[in-house]
Design a protein that fits this description.
Rossmann fold, formyl-coa transferase, domain 3, 6-stranded parallel beta sheet, disordered C terminus, 13 strands
Length: 434
């Protein structure tokens, strides 16, 4: 992995791809938005990190005894977790025991000053702690209250624990992925990512609406709904054909040729044919086998899928005389979509990423690390890309800031007040907190 220049974090890409110095204090779209979040793992932190990238102040509340458990998934980035580094840049970290009187007053004060409150507390925990939307927004109607859960409110699964792999199973994703003989999970936290992105877009929508109405919102995003939406096409296919989608490894189950093919040097190139014009061009200009364009076995996509094993053998026989570089040159010349199989770490040094200056450097407690800029490019400003916080790094400053809390945070009419939460501490469990 190549080094990312330190000064890269202090420059902004212009529309022509050149760099200009970043203007200190330049306004970002959410610069006047404060987010308080009781979060851990992936979905909620992903949503709030995107808010931070857009300039929002994000205050992350963590357990005193170890913090967000995603901090401990691995120790790969200068001793920090790769998950935590990815998901938590630009946030302030404070450790609070939200069931303890003094800490709860601090939490109340922060929520009273917030525009957005996010949590992914265990099912039922928010109500026991008085942090549900009804309780919180009674005294703060302009607040956008966002809940992330596994299965949503109501129904037989409401209190069922939910982790990414388990939602992949429940939505059918695992049965559509893998080899013909063995199903497989997706290689990344796809249920969490889908949920986090819907939470992000929902919060942005609520902020936009609040400008006109002055009213906040009570949002709820369930992992089942988020990944279920992404699984709609396989669901339609199975429901209306009576057949389960075929598991085909890295090949596409219903388009051919579309997937990996070996070159003569043993390397793998991926290619995709999307229509009959491309198929004819591929046969004539790449394979040098024009007769294949009208071969009845491969006359249309349905025929090519039915005879994909024979087709793959023919393609790899042609590729056997070329190394992967020459195969790519031929495919590009014929305007056939293709890609090289790369390991994940190469994304930071990908030639297109480097050419477009899409990588920056962020600070972590253990040292600098590369980070990709968010995908949306706006030439008016660059994303904040703040530091990844150490556990409780901002506790002292935040406690001092909110010590003189607004009267609302202490009043008897405040549903968040420690003295008026619905359930006493003895009725709450340690599993309530993220």
């Amino acid at each position: 992995m190549g080094a990312v220049p330190e000064d890269r974090a202090k420059t902004t890409s212009t529309p022509d791809g050149s760099l200009r110095p970043e203007v200190p204090g330049a306004s970002l779209p959410l610069a006047d938005v404060t987010v308080v979040t009781l979060e851990q793992a992936v979905a909620a932190p992903l949503a709030t990190r995107h808010l931070a990238d857009l300039g929002a102040r994000v205050i992350k509340i963590e357990r005193p005894d170890g913090g967000d458990f995603a901090r401990h998934y691995d120790r790969t980035v200068h001793g920090e977790s790769s998950y935590f580094v990815w998901l938590n840049r630009g946030k302030e970290s404070i450790t609070l025991d939200v069931k303890e009187g003094t800490d709860r007053v601090v939490l109340n004060a922060m929520i009273a000053a917030a525009d957005v409150f996010v949590h992914n507390l265990a099912p039922g925990a928010a109500q026991r702690l008085g942090l549900d939307a009804e309780s919180v927004r009674t005294g703060h109607p302009g607040l956008i209250h966002c809940v992330i859960s596994g299965y949503g409110s109501g129904g037989p699964y409401e209190r069922k624990k939910a982790y990414d792999l388990l939602l992949q199973c429940e939505t059918g994703l695992v049965l559509t992925t893998g080899s013909p003989t063995e199903p497989a999970k997706a290689g990344l936290s796809i249920a969490d990512i889908a949920t986090g992105m819907y939470a992000f877009s929902g919060i942005l929508t609520a902020l936009y609406e609040r400008r006109a109405t002055g009213e906040g919102a009570s949002l709820h995003i369930a992992m089942l709904d988020a990944l279920g939406e992404w699984m709609s096409q396989p669901a339609y296919f199975a429901a209306f054909t009576g057949e389960q989608p075929r598991r085909t490894g890295a090949r596409h189950p219903s388009i051919a040729p579309y997937g990996p093919h070996r070159a003569g040097d043993g390397a793998t190139v991926f290619l995709g044919i999307q229509n009959e014009r491309e198929w004819s061009r591929f046969c004539h200009e790449v394979l040098g086998r024009p007769e294949l364009a009208t071969d009845p076995r491969f006359a249309c996509n349905v025929d090519r899928v039915a005879n994909v094993e024979s087709l793959t053998a023919i393609i790899e026989a042609a590729f056997a005389g070329w190394g992967v570089n020459e195969v790519e040159v031929r495919l590009e010349a014929a305007e056939i979509a293709n890609a090289r199989l790369r390991p994940p770490q190469e994304i930071f040094d990908h030639p297109q990423v480097v050419a477009r200056h899409r990588c920056r450097q962020v600070h972590t407690p253990g040292g600098p690390a590369p980070a990709l800029l968010p995908p949306v490019i706006d030439p008016r400003h660059e994303s904040a890309m703040g530091a990844v916080p150490a556990l409780g790094e901002h506790s002292a400053a935040l406690r001092a800031e909110f010590a003189a809390a607004q009267p609302w945070a202490h009043s008897a009419s405040n549903p968040l007040d420690t003295n008026s939460t619905p359930a006493p501490p003895s009725a709450r469990t340690t599993s309530d907190l993220p």
